[in-house]
Amino acid sequence: MAKCALRTSFVLEKKDRDELPCPVIQAKQEKNVNEFKFGAHQFLWKSHWTDGDAGILDRARGLGCAFFEVSLGDDVFFDRGRLRRHAAALGIELTVGPGNFWPEDCDISAADSSHRQRGLDWHKKMINWAADIGAIAYCGAIYSHPGHVCRRRPPKEEMPRAAENLNQLAGYADRLGVRLVIEPMSRFRVHLVNTAAQAIDLVRLTNHQNLRVNLDTYHMVTEERDYASAIRCASPFLWGIHACENDRGVPGGGLVPWEAVFDALGSVRGCVHLMLETYNTGPDEFGFSRGIFQNLCPDPEQFVRRGIDFLQKGAAKHMKTPGQSYELHKKNS
């Protein structure tokens, strides 16, 4: 039997599963299966992607990653066609997020209409770049701007503004074959969407089939009282989960209730992308620049190896529920 860390994804099929209710927009449920893909974020290794970083992708694939997220921004420069070809040759999917320089006046929920327009234009540029590298999704707090926290009651028109512009972006991304994915973040990063329930409210308001939700176990520890309820709330539109501990360390051994997480994932149909995310805390001090002051990720390959092993074992254990029938198998690499 192959070692767990070498398995890129597995599928668990439940027979006679009850239909899940899908609010407003009917999320496409093409097959009655639970499929999990495991991946890693560039930030485990470094802050800015370059043409010299192809070896990181090779190592991620060798560690069992089925997908890999690259961070984009106005201060990131590389040959997008070259990355696309290399990922295709490895058989690894790419996702992207706006994790590097993102101008503060590019905010699609802003009260200033010129800021909203600049936000639309900027995100369309990022979506174009995502399409250039063949990315399957563009993920982040796209509805606002991370670091923009207004310490007042959100005005009633703020969420509709975000929804109107998300609808435009979702349609634009759809035409380019890129999924648009929004992520709730903690109150220390954004004020508009902190919880799974708020994210689903925004999806309903946006009313576009190309919009999905990504949850993050680090942000959830601040904002959610019940991880399982939050995951079930998001399940009709759940694209993935950023997986790390409450301190942004490797999953397992912290405060995140993984038993509840995996149990709730049993109600999600379709593919769920489980991505390891933190910041490298090696000698270049990138982690410190992102507010990580403990040595949580000095060795990204060890972080991925331990993380994927933990996630795979947890998923396999909790999908094999007594009285239910599943098929578990390794997908071809």
| Proportion in β-strands | 15-25%
**Assigned CATH architecture:** Alpha-Beta Barrel
SSE string: EEHEHEHEHEHEHHEHEHHE
What does the overall shape look like?
globular
Largest beta sheet: strand ordering: 2-3-4-5-6-7-8-9
What is the highest CATH level, the class?
A: Alpha Beta
Total number of helices: 10
Major sheet size, sense and barrel closure = 8 strands, parallel, barrel
**Cα gyration radius (Å):** 19 Å
CATH superfamily (homologous) name? Divalent-metal-dependent TIM barrel enzymes
CATH topology: TIM Barrel
Poorly predicted parts: 1-30, 321-333
Structural class of the helices, strands and pairings? alpha/beta
Q: Percentage of helical residues?
A: 25-40%
CA-to-CA gap between the ends?
15 Å
Number of strands: 10
Number of separate structural domains: 1
Mean pLDDT: 88
Written overview of the protein:
The chain has an eight-stranded parallel β-barrel, surrounded by seven helices. It is 35% helix and 16% strand. The model is unreliable at 1-30 and 321-333 (pLDDT under 50). It contains ten helices and ten strands. The longest helix has 20 residues, at 113-132. It is an alpha/beta fold and 333 residues long. The protein has a single domain (9-149, 166-320), classed as TIM Barrel (Alpha-Beta Barrel).
Please provide a brief summary of the model:
The chain has one domain: Divalent-metal-dependent TIM barrel enzymes (TIM Barrel), CATH 3.20.20. It is 35% helix and 16% strand. It has 10 helices and 10 strands.
Helix and strand topology:
Elements: E1 9-13, E2 33-41, H1 54-62, E3 67-71, H2 80-90, E4 93-97, H3 113-132, E5 137-140, H4 158-175, E6 179-182, H5 196-206, E7 211-216, H6 217-223, H7 227-234, E8 238-243, H8 258-265, E9 270-276, H9 286-289, H10 300-319, E10 328-330
Parallel strand pairs: 2-3, 2-9, 3-4, 4-5, 5-6, 6-7, 7-8, 8-9
Antiparallel strand pairs: 1-2, 1-10
Helix pairs in contact: 1-2, 3-4, 4-5, 5-7, 7-8, 8-10
